[in-house]
Amino acid sequence: MTTIKRLFDFPYHQLQNHNLPDALVTKYGDKWIKTSTQEYIDKANAFSRGLLRLGVKKNDRIAVISSNNRTEWHICDIGILQIGAQNVPVYPTISEEDYEFILTHSESTYCIISDEELYKKIMSVKGNLPNLKEIYSFNQVSGCKNWSEIIELGADTSNQAEVDSIKDSITEDELATVIYTSGTTGRPKGVMLSHKNIVSDVLMSAERVPFEAGNKKALSFLPICHIYERMILYLYQYYGVSTYFAESIEKVSDNIKETQPFVITAVPRLLEKVYDKIIAKGSELTGIKKKLFFWAVDVGLEYEPYGANGGWYEFKLWIARKLIFSKWKAGLGGNLGLMVSGSAAIQPRLARVFAAAEIPVMEGYGLTETSPVIAVNDQRNGGFKIGTVGKPLNGVEVKIGEDGEILCKGPNIMMGYLNDKEKTDEVLKDGYFHTGDIGIIDSDGFLKITDRKKEIFKTSGGKYVAPQLLENAMKQSRFIEQIMVIGDGEKMPAAFIQPDFDFVKQWASRKGLTLGSNQEIADNKEVHDRIQEEIDGLNKKFGHWEQIKQFEITPDVWSVDGGEMTPTLKLKRKAIKEKYQALYVKIYKDSDK
Going from the N-terminus, what domains does the chain have, and what CATH number goes with each? Predict the structure, then answer.
């Protein structure tokens, strides 16, 4: 039996226990191409041999940047790690300036990219990167070497003994990867994670995932450069889950129907979009069908786990599942039995309705610095509570600091930030990692996140406001796609709102209003008044000092490319505030009148 201590032990464990014909599956053109467990390992070994022949040494760093998740990424990952080099995964959507910073800071000697667009970005800063020896591409890109050249360089197996010798010498405490946090402010920090950090997190998380080993399928589409998806992919390898890679976020719904997965990982923003699409389809129904659809939704919104609502509710739920929810499940491939959600808080109503529809969302919590999982819900053994991120993993100690901050310790806590002792010492102190999040542990041992420590602000009246709580509540409105609450040091909370432009247009056409551009929508008084109604209703859940008193509608769709969101779809608060400074001034000037 392979004892898993280093990340490259996972594929060998899979070979011994669940030798899969379709370990990793990527779509090229209109064909899904399968790579077996044996082929995965053989190609990773060829890649290792090729890297050694290129002169790559232990502790060299290799940056890997891919616009989509794909088999090649994983072959490179194992090939890099098992010769003691470090994989530096980088987001595909950052600026040239950030690429220059990360490749310089990490001292990466080689860079492997996926496509022409990324090649152009790296080439634009290559002159400023003295450590960078060469760029290789997965796709055929004119003027760029192809990654297959490294595999071909390793086709001769005569140096496999050298690969094996280095591999055997690597300990679990050695650095495996440097992951640059996308961050909502400032320069990215290089989080150093050892083999032990990530392996321990995978094995502790494995206890919480209801897989029968070796007969399930997953669809992967969240960015692999983020530790959340990467850790999950090692978990799939551990459990012998066949992993299919979606072509892109836009094609996820098509790919779900094609591959019919049992499990996907998601972020709340994606779940909100899926739910909104389902509701939009229900709204198109007429008569009794429409009544029945929304009756089932109402039943779903009352859902409590473990039959807590009693017999009559369970009977209604059985009918709702039979008549309505079964169709939702069919629309999501028919086999989807589990969604794991992280990165930000999920609205409790979504957790309820998806669980009622027998597609439960298991919400978890963690950070890049914690490899990442600290706590996660588990449907079994009473381990699922809506509105929480589950119980801390066995092996991770969590305590709440005097100021409410979540502190933790365990084998999954990072080694530190690369070349930044000052920032490392700020977060690793008194034997605990300081998360920067505020939370509570309830009487049943469930962890609940209430806000980011840095994001809670004080109004000029000295009242504290937790923006995420307000934002999550407001996004229940179908008119509101994104919202950012502002008001630090001001006399009242206010907000920037990016409406759901498609939904607003549908609403307008029903009202006989003609709305053209997004700017017209943002400027339209009737749209503003209608959103005001939504906010007035939702404000009632909050104390007077927390309520959103004023808002402005923004004409842009907030996105990663537009700079308003991080790659894991969190708000870049500082960037949004700067972008809409004129609206900010308008809100607080108007309120002074």
Answer: 9-170+209-263 (3.40.50.12780), 457-592 (3.30.300.30)
